[in-house]
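Quick illustration, no need to memorize.
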Amino acid sequence: MIVRIWRGNTRLQDAEAYGAFLQAKGFSDYHATPGNEGALLLKRLSDDAAEFVLLSFWKDFDSIRRFAGPDPEKAVYYPEDERFLLGKEPRVTHYEVVAGALPAEILGSAEVARGL
């Protein structure tokens, strides 16, 4: 399994709306892509900005290419991102999952978010 990690920052006042957008659009597109195994959305607030980290889980790089196109390292953006993001990182990071254990409440939240 491969974890794809994307990061983005918004103004603090846009955090709630952008988080909702990512869940609605990003999670929907992930779920519609064969080979996607789920996703987690993380948020950290500071005094003047909100940082988002999106972890998406994929069966393999072929699955990621079905979502991202021929260059799996290239970040995927939507037109709505222009309204929210303070900048756009051109690349994402991938890691191979080699071990893990998640609490049931995280797994339950991920299943709810995916509509399972």
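Strands lie at 2-11, 36-45, 49-58, 93-96.
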